[in-house]
Design a protein that fits this description.
The chain is globular and about 40 Å long. Strands 1, 2, 3, 4 and 5 form a five-stranded antiparallel β-sheet that branches. The longest helix is centred in the last third of the chain and has 21 residues. The chain is an alpha+beta fold and 78 residues long.
Amino acid sequence: SGYKISAIEETVGQLVLDESGSLTSWGFFIPVFVSRNSDDSTLVEVGIKSKLFQYGPLVTRSHEKCVSGMKAAIYAAR
């Protein structure tokens, strides 16, 4: 919720989520990389990049919110 997919490359397991700006933030791009490990497990890596220049707790909070939402969606789908 609150994210739009701004780019997707299914063949390499990449997508970029777009978080809109708010009163306290210019918004973020959240790249997500999904790959299969040799032991057949799945690795999901989530980054974050500010749309302008932001750092500190706003970035950390936004990143944690996105990752927590992804974890909740994965566990709910089980």
